[in-house]
Records
---
Amino acid sequence: MRRHLAARGERVADLARLLARSALDTNPVPDWDHVTKVDPEAAKKLPLLYPLWLSETDAVSVGGSADVTPENTAAAFDLLTPLSTPVCHEPSGADHVTKQSHEAADLLLVPEVLNGDSEALVGTLGAAVESVREDLAPALIDEKAPWLPGSVADWLANVATSALLADAAFEAYIVQNPDSAAAREAGVGSEDVLSPGEAKRRAMAADRHLESEILYLEYSGTFGDDEAVEALSRMDDALVRSRVWYGGGLSNGEDVQAVREAGADTVVVGDAFHRVAEREAEILQAAEERLDAGADPETIREWVDDRVAPDGPGARFLSTVPGVDDPLALACEYTGATVRAWLELRDRRERASERDEGIPVIDIQRTALRAALAPVVDDPDRLAATVARAALSGREEGVGDGSRGSEQLSLSLFDGGASH
């Protein structure tokens, strides 16, 4: 009888939850317009003043499909955690979720690929649950209450596992570029690419049965064009709760507008952001040769304006952000601030080297670096110190707090400014 009543009570609770899902927006994932994906892979760099560029996006997602490790993930979080912008963690491996990343991330995104092999859906999820249950949850329990008896700690680890997973957002992917690293990781071949109708049906299953908080249509490095627009249009009225994210090949405002009008709640931009750092490295190396450390702001502005183009990476990335009215002007402003900060840091490094002082100690209060960051972050002193340590440190030296942030930036002053 008690079991019968319990089952009936659970059905009533489920019905109430379904009614709430249909009538209210119960999705814990905010309705962001724009998310920037930061790949911790060593080859994917951040602009020196990355907080300026990332102040324009609604959220940052940390994750990638190739060459991502717990170490470079930790380095990325070292740099990104001080931002005012929310930072999500999208791990590509269960061991990437650590106590540090759990504390640093505002939201954990658990990927599940709907058109990949079974490992990409069930196997990956199983590995994630196992890692939480056997590693992360017991470690958290042991840290908080090491005096608990083993049986109680084990029971609490079960509860903590369920709680941690309940706080995560499940991200149901439809991977549509079989030549991408994401497709290789998920076992998606050309025969697994879905038609718009098939994509809609998978999306409905993820929304109503898997209860995925995010439905992610992913073209990974290429723009889905008319096919993506049709798939998004079909999903638009078919999903009840899932947020629809689109990612792949977005590098201008026109493509962003097309997918948003078709039904994408959120656009995700990754490669376009990392290309900003690639171009920035070239500009900073040229600035070292052409500009003095004491160059006045007007001279720097004119020099930068000649090197930042309307179709360059900076303006193109900013054009993908809804609400940025003049991407070119903003790209020039941010690049100019970067050049001023870089020349000052380089000058201090050179003067310290002449005095054989090693890594110089910088009074952050009187730097172009802090002045640039002050308008966009809550704690400019902390973030300016983080960026300065990364820029002034080398690959082998790391930074003062033990992180390896220098490997993430477009340039480091290590070895005379050569990028790595």
---
Amino acid sequence: MMSQIKTAIRNSQSTLVQDAIGAAALVVMMIVALHIPGLA
């Protein structure tokens, strides 16, 4: 089981980085969108 998880992570490492960057971008956009009404 652990070896399968390690193999899956090793094989999809580049997409994991891309997914993490995308998730971080979504979090930033959500924070900005929630603060926009307070600026007006």
